[in-house]
Amino acid sequence: MGRPxxxxxxxxxxxxAINCKLQKLQERKVxxxxxxxxxxxxxxxxxxxxxxxxxxxxxxxxKTFIKDLDKVLNLLLSLSxxxxxxxxxxxxxxxxxxxxxxxxxxERHHTLSGQHEDARGLKEHQDHRERMTFNILSNYxxxxxxxxxxxxxxxxxxxxxxQRDLDEHLKLTEDQLECLQNSLESR
Length: 187
Hints:
One of its GO terms (molecular function) is actin filament binding. The chain is an all-alpha fold. It has helices spanning 4-53, 56-91, 99-137, 143-185. It folds into 2 domains: 1-54 and 165-186; 55-139. The chain is flat and about 75 Å long. The chain starts with a helix and ends with a helix. The relative contact order is 0.14. The model has no long low-confidence stretch (mean pLDDT 92).
């Protein structure tokens, strides 16, 4: 085993590396926020086109579809993440694991699996609504406007996924840094 000063030095080097990673993640978050703003601006332009050309009930359908897009995708991503964490915990279960903890994990897995399946159903319904919305828009918008609308929807989905992934990486990296700093201070 290394001398305490060697271990402390290695921990400081690791802290520096994690700080560097954290800085890069924060820079990516700033860039992602700019991408989201640019996509939101495109979305506002599309909404103005829709309001300027479609019937009021079609405008409302479009706006509701866009609002629900975020909700359904965020729900699905959240449940997927929670389900993955429970599955990871279940994979670590062994003979030494408390039976109540095992039972709790299995119940949470069952509940989350059902909720995840329901959310997938919502996503399928949302995909159907997307097709119906574009059928309506194709009657009013130019080919370029329709392509911009499709690009907006696809980019929105991609950015939501990327934002969720980045937030999870940031949280994990911040937790690692805090844990390492606490272990260095306790020496």
